[in-house]
Amino acid sequence: MKRHWEIDALRGLMLVLMTLTHLPTRLSEPLGQPFGWVSAAEGFVLLSAFMAGLVYSRYARRDGVETMRRAFWRRALVIYLCHAALLLFLLTVIAGVGVRGQQTAVTDLLSWYLAQPWQGFVYGLALVYEPALLDILPMYIFFMLLSPWVLAFAMRHGWAGVMVVSATFWVLAQQGFSEWFYGWTVALTGLPVPFQEMGAFNAFAWQFLWFCGLWLGASRSAPDARPLAFPWPVVALAVGVALGGLYWRHFGLHGQAPFGADVQRNLWVDKWQLGPLRLLNLAALGVIAVRFGPGWAGRLPRLRVLEVLGRASLPAFCAHLVAVLIVLAVLGGDPLRLPLWGDVLLIAAVFAFMVAVARFTQRADAAPPDDEEPAVVPAPASASAARDAPL
């Protein structure tokens, strides 16, 4: 299966922006949501879902739905093992260093675990307790487990019903469905994990973005798929929305809180709830990327290092978290702690580590060059999934 180097480069760019946001340096604030009211997380989730739809729908057509399901489940298991390793690293090494050094960036991050260590350990492995920074992979696992059933249904019956249900859950999430569901679960089971310790991402809202990407990817893999195209009024409107969001984000009066102290209106662009204005901004950027992206890709130089990171997105993502957690445990969370040259050295060292991990894992997987077509004989689904997996 031929690689899409443009998608790899975009995923690599999202990893770079995510890392710069998470590292406590002077760049974390200006490069948080750099393109408007959209962060690297939205781009990463959408691109990963797109690749999942593209790759696994091809498996289903070529090898059958059961093969596609097994490939999804194998990938979900790999992601779970990565998350479990990161969690154990956080709860042992990082917790020990942070507590000994009295780094509030770590003790605040692990406050519930430090108060309830055994419950934190068990519920963490069960994907219920999700400390900050380690809350995106559990959401991915949840989506990967749902996706084979949703994709199989949509390939037989169409995507209309799937997207209506998904959009309905997104609307419910904006109205507090997650809090209601948590309260119902606690009343039924006595779950001891506080709501705020179950991850910042509202999965009932973010599933809409995932299934939009899955739908787009699956539609692009169909034998009769036509290139996406938008009429010029839609493109013009998208450009206006994107420029407005960009100006508002960087030149507005309130920084990353668009409406200042107005909590209710800030929810319209809330990242964790995936607010409606955020979705609008993301859709506008998506239209621009589809309309102008191919032309830009043909003119701009290829940054191979971004492709390297994008092709090994799961190892690179885990490496970035390891690096960020070490920095928080050793240096703390103050973005002004280091001088400017220290920030530069820190960022360079972290990216060198991420690239080294990405290159090592690619060599271990023996991935073919991105412009090389595989042999006509289909590869086993597990090997193909290792090369083309969405995360």
Automatic annotation (TrEMBL):
Biased composition (Low complexity): 375-391
Recorded name of the encoding gene: opgC
Domain of life, source organism: Bacteria
Transmembrane is among the record's keywords: yes
Spans through the membrane: 38-56, 77-101, 121-146, 158-178, 198-216, 228-248, 275-293, 314-332, 338-358
Organism: Xenophilus arseniciresistens
InterPro entries with a match to the protein in the record: UCP028704_OpgC (IPR014550)
Keywords: Membrane, Transmembrane, Transmembrane helix
Protein name according to UniProt: OpgC domain-containing protein
Region (Disordered): 366-391
One Pfam assignment: OpgC_C
